[in-house]
Design goal:
CATH topology: ECO RV Endonuclease, Chain A
Structural class: alpha+beta
Helix content: 25-40%
Radius of gyration: 18 Å
Number of strands: 8
CATH architecture: 3-Layer(aba) Sandwich
Shape: globular
Number of domains: 1
Strand content: 15-25%
Distance between the termini: 34 Å
Largest sheet: 3 strands, mixed
């Protein structure tokens, strides 16, 4: 039986406390966890896409909200929920951060939003198959992860290529096909949303907001390396 949880969870003091909190959630359903943090689990995520992330943020004491910094600022740890199927494989790509379209051309990798978010990540797998109702989906065992040298090099290569295209004013030419592990996709509630960008001449123009996403192939590699997954059968 789950122990009571205060409505306002303070931030963890260190990584050990954060990981202990995350491990305590393993095996619980979203329907069991939601009322403990003042939420109601929706029947599906069509109109509540941010529900799982919000639930985990409240349960673990994340405090950054939508700011361009890790979810646990004092620890430098980002929280990412990871929907997985019955075989433990990611169901979809993972949103990393919004792209500052007018600034990215003058930013180096080490100071980029992507690297700040991915330098240290608490991955929390959650059942993500649509046939399972949201309240019945279970939380898996969390993983505290940092990219190794090979993973960072691959992410940096993709980021520099994509950032270079945006910095040159060609953001509208980008498609989700570019980038081996990191990709750029529109990130907006609807098609009428616009943000300031620049064209090839440096003139301001209104464009769809964009975000960086990790491909499922990348997060799948993380899961395969750190978890014992069911065979494909």
């Amino acid at each position: 039986m789950l122990s009571p949880m205060p409505s306002e969870v303070s931030g963890p003091r260190d990584e050990a406390e954060l990981l202990a909190r995350a491990h305590a959630l393993a095996g619980a359903t979203l329907g069991e966890l939601a009322p403990r943090v003042g939420l109601i689990a929706p029947p599906d995520l069509r109109r509540a896409k941010g529900f799982v992330g919000q639930l985990l943020e409240r349960a673990l004491g994340a405090s950054a909200g939508s700011q361009a910094q890790p979810d646990f600022p004092t620890l430098g740890v980002e929280l990412k929920s990871l929907p997985v199927n019955a075989r433990g494989r990611p169901c979809e790509s993972t949103f990393v951060c919004h792209i500052p379209l007018t600034e990215i051309g003058s930013v180096e990798w080490d100071e980029s939003r992507v690297w700040r978010k991915l330098r240290r990540v608490l991955w929390v797998p959650v059942e993500g198959e649509r046939k399972i109702g949201v309240p019945q989906r279970r939380v898996g065992q969390a993983l505290l992860w940092s990219p190794d040298a090979e993973e960072e090099a691959a992410l940096r290569f993709d980021w520099e290529e994509l950032a270079g295209v945006i910095g040159c004013g060609d953001v509208e030419s980008l498609t989700g096909h570019l980038g081996r592990y990191l990709q750029v996709r529109p990130k907006a509630a609807h098609g009428r949303v616009r943000r300031q960008g620049v064209d090839r001449e440096g003139a301001s123009l209104a464009v769809l907001p964009r975000g960086f996403y990790l491909r499922a192939t990348f997060t799948g590699r993380i899961l395969a390396r750190h978890y014992v997954l069911p065979s494909r059968g």
